[in-house]
Amino acid sequence: MAYDPTKPANSAPVSSSELRNQFAGLKELIDEKANTADLVPTIDANSSGPIAGQVDYFTGTFSDPPTAAEVQALADKVNDLITVLKRT
């Protein structure tokens, strides 16, 4: 039986068969969507790659006001991170 979001009606007596049918309908919907063989390529294609060990922490310091070289060092580190996060 297909899931019916209108059941059980408000203040209706509880019917075990109706609830069982609702749970069965929900299980069918979940089973249709839960094919993990299809999910893995989709997740891989739409998520970042691993970054462990590929980008070191930024260890630079800034003066007040920061110099162009200090700001450029930070920009370079951000660009390194973006490059690693992109999947190719």
The total of helices stands at: 3
How many distinct folded domains?
Answer: 2
Profile the largest sheet: none
Helix percentage: 40-55%
Topology, number of strands: 0
End-to-end separation: 44 Å
Large-scale geometry: elongated
| Sheet/helix structural class | mainly alpha
Q: Segments where pLDDT lies below 50 for 5+ residues?
A: none
Series of H and E elements: HHH
Mean pLDDT: 86
Strand proportion, as a percent range, falls in under 5%
Q: Radius of gyration, Cα only, in angstroms? A: 26 Å
Characteristic key phrases:
mainly alpha, 88 residues, 2 domains, single chain
Question: Can you describe this structure?
Answer:
The chain folds into two domains: 1-34, no CATH class; 48-88, no CATH class. The longest helix has 18 residues, at 16-33. It has three helices and no strands. By secondary structure, the chain is an all-alpha fold. The chain is elongated, with a radius of gyration of 26 Å. It is 52% helix and 0% strand. The model has no long low-confidence stretch (mean pLDDT 86).
